[in-house]
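Thread: "does anyone have the structure for this chain?"

Original post by V.I.:
We have the sequence but no experimental structure in hand. Need at least a predicted one for the grant figures.
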Amino acid sequence: MSDLKSQIEGLSAAEKADLLDAVWQSLEAEPLTEAQRRELDYRMARHEQNPSDVIPWEQVRAGLFKKP
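Reply from O.Q.:
Generated one for you, tokens below.
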């Protein structure tokens, strides 16, 4: 695991983001539990009630990679 960690640390921010996307997509193939499904339904209902109460992904991502 430490070898994997050191490999990740050697990646650029863009490469790390690509890796995160790939890992996330691999998780999407796993079925949701009933609790996860209920949470997803809850969040979707909240979004449908107030669709303008969101932060665009581009803004979130820019904040993640912003240097202090």
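V.I.: this helps a lot. Residues 2-64 form one domain.
O.Q.: and The longest helix spans residues 13-28.
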